[in-house]
Amino acid sequence: MLLAGVGQRSVRDAARTSLPSTPRANYNVAVEKRVITILGCTASGKGSLARALAQEIGGEIVSVDSMKVYRGMDIGTAKPTPQQRAALPHHLIDVADPWETFSVARFVELADRAVAEIHTRDRPVIAVGGTVLYLKCFYEGMFAGPSADPKIRAEIRSRAEDEGLEALHAELAEIDPEAAARIHRNDLRRIERALEVYRLTGTPISKLQMQWDRDSIRRPDWNWVLVGLRRDRESANRRINERVRRMIAGGLVDEARRIWSDPHGVSDQARQAVGYAELFDHFEGKLELDRAIEEIKIHSRRLAKQQRTWLRRLPDVHWVELEGSADTAFLLGRIRAVLHDPK
Q: CA-CA distance, 142 to 136, in Å (whole number)?
């Protein structure tokens, strides 16, 4: 059953809109149930590599990105172009509207459905993305935690209005420095949940989430192959800054304005998206445009740092060190070697 408030178009509907004719893989994927997962920080080149690999081996792409799920949020999320999506099947893109809530539980439900459908077509899955929480839950399983407490949440929301989010984030930093380091100071939803869990259990949420860091995986029946793209920090930062410049030149400000001015509003989750949150602040008179653009670069680099921290902890990743533009043919050769002998 679909969760309340989430668009009624399923991942199956999205897949049916365009299933281009791509070559079959050269191995028995129906037996292997292969899920090739390409990981990396923002602007690392994951999407380009995933598309090249999918074209070569007849795979279908599953996006593991918390913001690409939203329709209309295209430029700021670096979505594949309409032409790229027409050439290859993509899943978990454009499955909700920006005013809707889209949970990680909903993502896992749709991702599992997409993987099952792709395997029935005897094709390999290529999962690609950098949203840490989605990757954790897709690969390692979900942290359930205590149920939400409406009274505590109402109290936290009231404090957010009276004292501001920075005060709540500062409180979180005192009780759970690790969680505060990875949660943005403007992310009310995640700050609220971390404070709520601490109030209910007396234990920091970062400690409870350590159950993710276990040897087992959520779906051992799938043949997982994890490939990580890694760049040195200076090169990664240059790519991030350049991508932000391209997004601004490509019309990000106008796209963000359309979303911000929609009478339906914007959900708390969509409002936190890097590249949009800063422009929303500009539209609301909190930032000059030049400063908002600079904040996008800063927050994108901070996001990459958080991604690097978590990805280093993930076991069984086949790392590919990238230098310069990293020729796609070279990367495909590296992945071929991994697929031939993933151990």
A: 7
